Amino acid sequence: MKIKLNSVNFSAEKKLLDFLQLKVTKLETFYDKIIDSEVFLRLDKSEDAANKIAEVKINIPGKELFAKKQCKTFEEAIDTAVEALRTQLTKQKTKETSAKHATIE
What we know:
The protein is an alpha+beta fold. Helix content is 42%, strand content 31%.
């Protein structure tokens, strides 16, 4: 899967990029038809401690899935966004499977 990363107003460290790659690539375990993904990491200008934002967009055939999370660390934001996408992918796979079974019967 191709992953396009955009870090807005800061330079992401290699450690963060590796973490991101690992988490997003893991989504293919739950849904094998992922075309590509795009990730935006940005710092919110608020004074709040939870000012790290991760937005993850995944393209699958005929659909685009999206999750945006804001947390205290980029790792936590990535983790929760990927978890939200995992749930969406699982639902999508269930829909496809039940649609296949309905056409067979």
